[in-house]
Amino acid sequence: MRSKFVQVVLIAVVIFLFLKLGIRPPIPGSLITLFMAITALTLFIYVSSDEESWQDFIRPILATLVEEKRARLRLIVFIVFPLLVGWGTLKVMMPGVDPPAELRVIHPAPPSNIQFRGKNIKIEGLVNPLRENGEEASGYIKEGMEIYFKNCFFCHGDALDGNGHFTLALNPPPADFTDTGTIAQLQESYLFWRIAKGGIGLPRQSKPWNSAMPAWEENLTEDAIWKTIMYLYHAAGVSPRTWE
Amino acid sequence: MDGETAMYKIKDIMKTSISVLMLSGLLVAGSLADAQTEKAPALSQEAEAGRSLYNDWCAGCHGADGLGDGPAADYLDPRPRNFVDGAFKIRNTVSGELPTDEDIFKMIDVGMPGSSMPGWKKQFSEKQIHQLVAYIKTLIDMEFFGEEIPEKITVGEPLPSSAESLAKGKELYRKLKCWECHGEEGRGDGPSAPTLKDDWGNPIISADITKGWTFRGGSHTFDIYRTFTTGLDGTPMPSYIDTIGDEDRWHLSNYVKSLSPLEMPPVKTVLTSRRIKGEIPGNPDDPIWRQGEDYFFPLAGQIVFEPKLYTPSIDSILIKSVYNDKEVAFLITWNDRTRNAPEKGKDELPDSMAVQFPVELKDERPHFVLGDAGNPVNLWKWKAGGDTLEEANARGVGKYFPQGPESQGLKGDAAYMHGRWKLIVKRSLTTEEENNDIQFVPGEFIPISFLAWDGSNNEAGGKMSLSSWYYLVLEKPVTARAFIFTPLAILGAVGLEFLAMRRARRGARSRN
Description:
Chain A is mainly alpha-helical and 244 residues long.
């Protein structure tokens, strides 16, 4: 069982099962094919890295092709392999219902400047101006919460987990702020940009977008957005990334 | 009716009238209420911990004082519960009584489907939920309730569902006039439905009992039985404990349960249009329309652009599509409690539905809310009242342009029955106006989305419910190629095998 051949097959099967069943929501078939092709290539490089390992890998294959005591196995392989190839061909030829893969950049690089209601705001190096007034922060958080519950929670949810009562109708789903991959790894200025400009303000590499995020500069003032951001970090229990 | 239950009834009525009085008092002198809160007796340690959680996570909807008046309250339907009045919907106690601690615990733990109350089990530990329960109980105005422990309902032996039980349940549904509010087929469209108010005077809709996944207290048969037994306090849904016996309540529960699918239908990304031979039938009850899959798409209120719709009425649609070599057609079904089909010149908003496509297929999709300046959408819109079908283009909210009469090519028909619209709409696969109309090619993935308006909910223009983009694909006919290439591939594989075997044998011989 320690043969290279068994190893390689096992690795390929485990990776395939993970891609197929381990990722929720399921990823498109075309992506699985792409990842499996990369896997196959990597495994090939791995087994063919030196002569000994290569011989180790092809030994069971050669043995099956040649040795008399493996005649029965050979027969099975010789029947099953062409059938698999035929099935695969038929599948490719038959009309499929796999949607085109949508590879979008979830957190594109922010612009260095934005126009906020006609005012130029430098995003690069920007920190939340309200944090200076540390003493008043708890008041800001309360105000931020009020703004959140009047504008945001329908989609982002009471618990900030991206699971509001409108979420089901939205694809891609609204951001889950309790996920460590979201606000915890972003600067506050990033949130300011995303909130101010919304889905419409996403750069090209994030398209085709579906984002339902409104451009909040139309409804909220600069201060209101900063207060909401304070509430988000406070309620999610994480700190913003800083400008090193 | 025994004396005890009669007393509960009286208590219930008294409580409601006093609470309405109380509420108006509070509205006039809100500051007084604040003063009262300050004077409140010290909380237990557990309740104190609960208070801090409550202020962080619950006050947004339920309000700082538990009056159901948090900042989100006006944007929600159903509205958040007012705890002060102590009228809780989901309980295991008799009508008019307070819930048990476990009842409150469960509401927080699993949430209330069909409302904005989520289940908090991921967010809070059991201990934290107990702390919340302890605090929420301190918000209730105990003036209306005795100190004694609330009386729990007795649960009779469940009766399994059977044809006989369902028939009895159906008969009870008729006899008890459940249909007056919930409608003949259960879609919440009964004649009394539009007049319903909750205990605080807010309009309230009757449950659509064909969508079990939205039942606030859960959709197990027991949950339904419990609702019949306890009633939903604060709402017009009464307790039937004195009206019908235990067995009948089980029959009725079995029947109500049978009106919904077991769970919410799955949401799929791709809507496949089935290829048929011959004419596309215009009658939704035609066998052709009965075959094939119904696709379920949830809708949300449009809250991206002004004017926004926070409390939409239509929460989902079911759709089916077929095509032949000339036309593509959709059968769209959705529940709507009221039929709004105004005659010409009448000042009433019509029920409407639209299917949305991009005009052009490219990487960038139009904004899902009626497109955007650079990416127009093609809309197939139907309006009730004269059943007008209209092809239009839009470039954003407020930028809706019907096409000229010479470009109108939609055909179809709609019918309303028992709280449900059924609309068939069809168009030729291709048109001569490629700059304005979507063109259909089998096998191509075409973005599609849906927009709906309920006239009685004041929905028009940007005030609508809608879905984000999905894909429509007209299933590709199986080509002859598949039947040529498959055998070729098999032959090729066999050839390869023998080639490999020969080489391997030769190699083995030369090594020996």
